Write the structure tokens for this entry.
Amino acid sequence: MNVVCIGTGYVGINTAAALAYIGHSVCGVDIDEHKINLLKSHKAPISEAGLDELLSQKMNLTFTTCLEDCVNTADVIFIAVGTPSLPNGHANLSYVMSAAEDIANSLMPIHDVTIVVKSTVPVGVNSMIERQIRDKVTMRCGSDALLHFSSNPEFLREGMALSDTFYPDRFVFGTEDDKAYQMLTTLFAPIIDQTFEPPAFVEMPDPRPKTQCIHTDAISAEMIKYASNVFLALKISYANEIAGLVEKLGGNMDDISRGMGMDKRIAPYFLKSGLGWGGSCFPKDSLALLSMAKDYDYQMPIVQAAVDVNERQKTRLIQKVIDKLHILPGRRIAILGLSFKPRTDDVRNSPSVDIAKELVRRQAIVTVHDPQGLDNARVIYKNEGFIFCTDPIEAAQNADAIIITTDWAEYKNIDWKDMAKAVKTPFLFDARNLLRNELDKVKDFVYIGM
């Protein structure tokens, strides 16, 4: 099939590359010329395991900044652009609606074509996009009979996005159009049936999964995405709330999480306590769900509590630092980790960055390090007053305290004896509990976990 992916972020580029690998002809479209030039040179604009290697493979994958170059040969068009939060919590739909407008203005269908919304959008947006495109195409061409529409939300983990694209646990197809459903199941058949040759450079689960398909309406598909992400956020906040009580009572939160996770009704995932969740999905999806509920005069106190607990984790950490250092102005504090989680260079909506900003606001001298996200942070946060360091030892030099804010494996394996020699005072705040079970490594420090 001929495929167009509008948007070359985490969702768009992984979708485009995987579909090209399994044999489709794919064109990635983005208005960002820098991204497109990078992709044309077989380099990914994001840090994602295996993606550069996949882009260097010989396959039918092209890139352009002009949708008109490829839209009218497409069998399937994916909208995979961002929907960041607005100040009021609602999803910013400007990029999605702009993509839909571009399709509506360019598409002259001469064969069946399915337009697929892969972006995370509030309930009803798929219908809005369908009306917008149908109306304009009908006005220009006289008929919209060849147009088909579907919601197809993604469930990708940053850092594992390519693996999740090749080995998904489920596909959700939100459409009541049989032709759209048929086209999409045909498009994804090699992945659904797992008949493709696994790329050696992409992590494959063992055992290789059997992918499930859910065929539903667009509204339910839209809500499946939000309900899934916010449920995972709830689990993290619940674990953090229990950890706060355990800290007062005494006990081992790792054992508690493990014991809970052994119950198959609960499962072990997303029960790790620490600084809380961040990134491009959980924060915006939680706020968007609350905003949708407010629009319909519906209260969601559990979701609101999860958001509140998540914010409280940052306050708890700052208070722990104050309890040990007493005053913050002039104190030198090293932040280890800026990405919102390991295995990604994404520093957007990162609790680590929020902690660093708050310490600067309180007049501390803040040095920061991250194994992958440092370059992004230098650009995005260049005016925040951080001192960017290319090495953890450099960040720790003469520090009054070290805070581990992202649980990178690199931080578990660094030489903590050398770190102890570098610091001024040996306070180590482990906001991700990375070393809680390996205290021998940091025996030269005063260790404070979360």
